[in-house]
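Q: Sequence in, structure out?
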Amino acid sequence: MRYKIVVVGGGPGGYVAAIRAAQLGARVALVEKEELGGTCLNRGCIPTKVLAAAAGILDSIKRAGEFGISTGTVEVDMAALIERKRQVVKRLASGIQFLLQKNKVELVRGTAVLTSPRTVKVSLPDGTERELEAENIVLATGSSPALIKSLGYDGRQVITSDEALDLTSVPGRLLIIGGGVVGCEFASIFAALGSKVTVVEMMPTILPNVDKEVSRYIQGVFKRRGITVKTGAGIKTVRKDAGEVVAGLESGEEIAADLVLISVGRVLNTGGLGLAEVGVALGERGEVLVNERMETSVPGIYAVGDITGKIQLAHMASAQGLVAVHNIMGSSRIMDYRVVPSCIFTSPEVGVVGLTADEARARGYAVKTAKFPMMACGKAQAMGETEGFVKMVADAQTDRLLGVHIVGPHASDLVAEAALALEADMTAARLAQVIHAHPTLAEAVLEAAEGIHGLSIHA
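A: Exactly. Output:
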């Protein structure tokens, strides 16, 4: 059977591409060997947010006395929490399957290999094979946690984020190797659930890719909440001893833990697909090389998501999938990486979009910044969540917004306004003229925009 498009991979890049192609009139097949929704739904974005939500509720209960509410003893039933996580994932995965059926996308369960630029061979679960002929192929196979054997990975005492999402008890002492986004999210979650958490990061700061003020602020929050952070520190040895794991740092210090979580990057899922055999060019890290139209080196083969080596975010994969499909179907779209919001679900949350002040200066901009504290926001005070700030970066010559960096309650939601402002090339002055409802957290964005001109009212 011949298809207009065969999509390989059912994550947020693949299933979105498949559905949009079907909406545009294409005959589409989607090949997926595991669960629909990919890493994001099954082992990443959604499961961690279920745990983060539970951690947030637990923290609120512990602080209930501040709001005049008396509570009794509170306990964490980790097994029940993990079961809730499974149910949420199951409902959303079923929803994706329904959408595929609704849009007449044929779902093919199995492992795909490209045997030619127009042919995909699928090994089915029953041991048989099926060949799919395609006018176009979209690769969306994602990435997986790096399994570093030298750090003692065994999936039991030394684990990755995959196994962390199925723990049925809260570890007493948790060592997290890697202070990036995933490591910091798990640190925040398990500290709230009751673990004594230590984070070891080789770089000078945790969250090394965000604005320096944001990174320093979150590190300060971690310290106040009892999370030990060791930066500029490398792990030299990991040994298992009498039911515990002992990590030896390059400094000679040893850290004992009941559980070690490795969070030091991801591996691109490009192996075993037959890419080299059909001529698809790969980069030094094994990434599929694509142009701004998401085309690979082989006409008719496109790639989206983590395997392109661009920005490893679910919404980025979806955006790339839409660009690829619209180009296949006759439109002309290019991928714009200038405005890509990113969220970190620590407590408090972080939401960022655009350039940091340092990045803007490195690109030759004369930079103006302004910062408005959540402490001065009426809604944040009413909620009892006053940690954080909104930091705005603007071009001093044109007043055009270059970046917005938010730490605080619902930062992951607030960053959407900032992304829209950057996409529309708004100036700080124009954003400040937009009337914001009171009392809302979004007023902090307004006040930061006013602050670029020294006109913030409540700071």
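The mean pLDDT is 96.
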